[in-house]
Amino acid sequence: MDHGLTVPLSLVFGEVERWPCRVIPLHVNVVQYPVPSGARCFALGRALRRAVESYHRPLNVQVWGTGGMSHQLQGPRAGLINREWDNAFLDRLVADPEGLSRVPHLEYVEQAGSEGIELVMWLIARGALSDVDGGGAVSADHRFYHVPASNTAVGHLILTNHPQVPAGPADEE
Prior knowledge:
Blueprint: H1 3-13, H2 38-53, H3 83-95, H4 97-100, H5 105-112, H6 122-127, E1 136-146, E2 154-163
Antiparallel strand pairs: 1-2
């Protein structure tokens, strides 16, 4: 496991000997081209939600999308951080995830740096929320953006799923 999993878990749970929950990492290639498109990641999140919903009993599941915001670690643009693009990405992740899923790879590279392509992984988590298929609503419960003394912008976004509850016999009268 790399820092894309261990850092967020350490931020939530601290330094523990064992994670206090089950963790199922889903590895996504964002290093070696061809990397998956945002649309493919978004569709994977939708499929993941359907799989969780099909389970024979209710589950308490969190789906995390991890990856650095804008950053480039090498070359003439090393140290690139694009605050405006990062914050627009967070806005669109909440308000227009399907439109965001159509952003081409080249725009990620141009606007967010060569490592900014990691953001497509956030679309998996966003696709797993029921509002994208008209089955509920989402609330943005936490948003944070910061550029620390490093070469990577940091963003946190916690979205809570509020699925529609099917109408029962009493609701139909």
